[in-house]
Specification:
CATH superfamily of the largest domain: P-loop containing nucleotide triphosphate hydrolases
CATH architecture of the largest domain: 3-Layer(aba) Sandwich
Radius of gyration: 19 Å
Largest sheet: 3 strands, mixed
Number of helices: 9
Protein name: CBS domain-containing protein
InterPro entries: ABC_osmolyte_uptake_ATP-bind, P-loop_NTPase
Organism: marine sediment metagenome
Strand content: 15-25%
């Protein structure tokens, strides 16, 4: 905590953090990540956060760069990196990611076909882990709403399975 506070004392334009939580036990690490996210929302700083813990990167980042031998091999949002790995190295790097906990309905939804109602919709931010039980009720398609409550798209059971399997459907 002291190191984080010291790094902010000079009010940097870009906040550079190199493995800030690597030596912490899992409980304190999670608390510090929560505090980091709270500070980011409050301060609106650009941050370069270096970590070798990919799950930590997925949790705290809105953009990720994956490097191999000193070269950036892919950069993008956490969902882009997980869903569309640039090469075999990135695919292997992301292989054990708990996709159901990270991928959201909004990140894989398709355009709405117009016959769905907002009252049955799920938010774009709902993870697949929370969405899957809704398909067990016999639904084939579920509406997805934006933060205003308007229908933003729809998601099918097949789209969920495809995302969890780590493959993309071929375009016709």
């Amino acid at each position: 905590r002291v190191g984080i506070a010291r790094s902010l004392a000079v009010e940097p334009e870009i906040w550079f953090l190199d493995e800030p939580f690597s030596a912490l036990d899992p409980l304190i690490r999670r608390q510090m990540q929560d505090e980091f996210l709270r500070l980011q929302r409050l301060l609106h700083k650009s941050i370069v956060f270096i970590t070798h813990d990919f799950l930590e990167a997925l949790r705290v980042a809105d953009r990720i760069a994956i490097m191999k031998e000193g070269e950036v091999v892919q950069r993008g949002s956490p969902t882009e990196v997980i869903m569309r790995p640039a090469n075999d190295y990135v695919a292997e790097f992301t292989r054990d990611v708990p996709r159901a906990k990270l991928i959201t309905a909004g990140s894989i939804m398709s355009p709405s076909e117009g016959h769905l109602t907002a009252s049955e919709a799920v938010p774009e931010t709902m993870t697949l882990e929370r969405l899957i039980p809704r398909f067990s009720q016999g639904l084939e398609v579920i509406a997805v709403c934006d933060d205003t409550g308007s229908i933003a798209g729809q998601i099918s059971a097949q789209e969920v399975l495809t995302a969890l399997a780590g493959t993309e459907e071929e375009s016709p």
